[in-house]
Amino acid sequence: MKFNTKNYDYLIVGAGPYGSVFAHEASKRGKRSLIIERRKMLGGNMATHKEHGINVHDFGAHIFHTDNKEVWDYVNQFTEFNGYINQVVANYKGELYNLPFNMNTFYQMWGVRTPEEAATKIEEQRKAAGLTSAPRNLEEQAISLIGTDIYNKLIKGYTEKQWGRKATELPSFIIRRLPVRYVFDNNYFNHRYQGVPVDGYTPIFEKMLDSDLIDVQLNTDFFANKYAYLEEFPRVIYTGMIDQFFDYKYGELEYRSVRFESKVFEVNNKQGNAVINYTDAETPYTRIMEWRHFDKHADDGYTILTKEYPQDWDRSKEAYYPINDEKNSKLFRKYHKEADALEKVLFGGRLGNYQYYDMDQVFNAALKAVEREFK
Ligand code: UDP
Question: Which positions fall inside the UDP-galactopyranose mutase C-terminal domain (predicted)?
Fold first, then answer.
């Protein structure tokens, strides 16, 4: 016994939302967990820190949004949300448009003033593009939802740099994440419950894991001692990359990575919005976040802006987005089958399940796993 020094019931690999919910719920049931986390902080990609009184999201903008009341009540045990509603502006070569696609966007693009005029315009463009059958990829899906003008100015360039692939090679579900609505409403999400924690996300994890029955070891790589961990612990909750767990034996799943560049300015307001997307193909970043606008109570005198650059993933970089195209989905199913057969190990989270999950979906999946584990 080198690692299971305290008779732990669970080894949890990864201190993101899936692993942290699991540890918290296990502790409420008197079970002891050791969480090991490769990175130096809690919260996975939800991690935040405070700088000049401003909550900065370390891994890109995270806005909590859900229709699931159970999940919403659950996270609200650990934090207060600030009521923030995301209203993204798109900059296409200097032209500004409201997102998601709504009557404001349609007016800005075409000068149309009524839902009927907008629908007619979109229908014309859909017909002209010759789309009659069910959309086979992101490009066809986008054009059939909002027409070619919006596709060309607001989607094609952004999508192709974000994913490093042609829009015709991407699955259509990715664009269906964004609402299309025939009302003047710039709310980026349709969900009933939305916001950002008043103190950032990291304190949620500090609270969740504050228990005598939970120990956390940061800077600890599961793969440095995988076989010993698997042997010593009666049960393992694994939230890392599923292909890495199996030593990439069927091949590597593909991911998309991003990198961030932040800068502090000694003014109160620089870009006038929390998120501005740059939707042309040439600008190397996809969006710029101005963190003080996520949080109305930030101190005066400073503002912090972060540019988000998409990049290819390799093993030296953080995996952000799974690429759920046909080829990768097929490979994932092979790993998933193998994972399912391992009785001792439960796979969860965005990387363990290779799913483009939002935060609420991860919380929900973890709560469901807890129900099954302790029924
Ligand atoms: N998208 C786009 N233009 C935009 C914003 C989004 O074409 O200005 C597309 C793009 O393909 C992106 C997808 O919509 O990957 C989903 O966007 P979302 O904002 O949900 O992505 P996330 O915040 O998860 O990166």
Answer: 153-356
The answer to whether 164 and 310 are in contact (CB under 8 A) is: yes
Q: Is 159 in the pocket of ligand 1 (CB under 6 A)?
A: yes
Does 372 qualify as catalytic in the annotation? no
- Ligand 1 atom at minimal distance to the Cα of residue 88: 8
End-to-end CA distance of the chain, in Å? 29
Torsion, Cα 341 347 351 356, to 10 degrees, reads 90
* Whether residue 43 has pLDDT greater than 90: yes
Please tell me if the CB atom of residue 178 comes closer than 6 angstroms to any atom of ligand 1: yes
* Binding site membership of 12 for ligand 1 (Cβ less than 6 Å): no
Task: Tell the CATH topology of 10-85+194-253+323-373.
Answer: Rossmann fold (3.40.50)
DSSP 218-262: SS--GGGSHHHHHHH-S-EEE-S-HHHHTTTTT-PPPEEEEEEEE
CATH 3.40.50.720 in the chain, residues?
A: 10-85+194-253+323-373
| Residue 350 a catalytic site member | no
Whether ligand 1 lies within 6 angstroms of the CB of 90 is answered as yes
Q: What is the CA radius of gyration of the chain?
A: 22
Strand order in the sheet with 303-312: 95-98, 89-92, 275-278, 287-290, 303-312, 255-265, 321-322
In the beta sheet, which residues pair with residue 195?
A: 64
User: pLDDT by residue (tens digit) across 80-123?
Assistant: 999 999 999 999 999 999 999 999 999 999 999 999 999 999 99
181 is catalytic: yes
What's the whole-number average pLDDT of the chain? 97
The angle at the Cα of 348, spanning 344 to 353, to the nearest 5 degrees, equals 115
Note the pLDDT tens digit of each residue in 219-239. Answer: 999 999 999 999 999 999 999
Is residue 296 over pLDDT 80? no
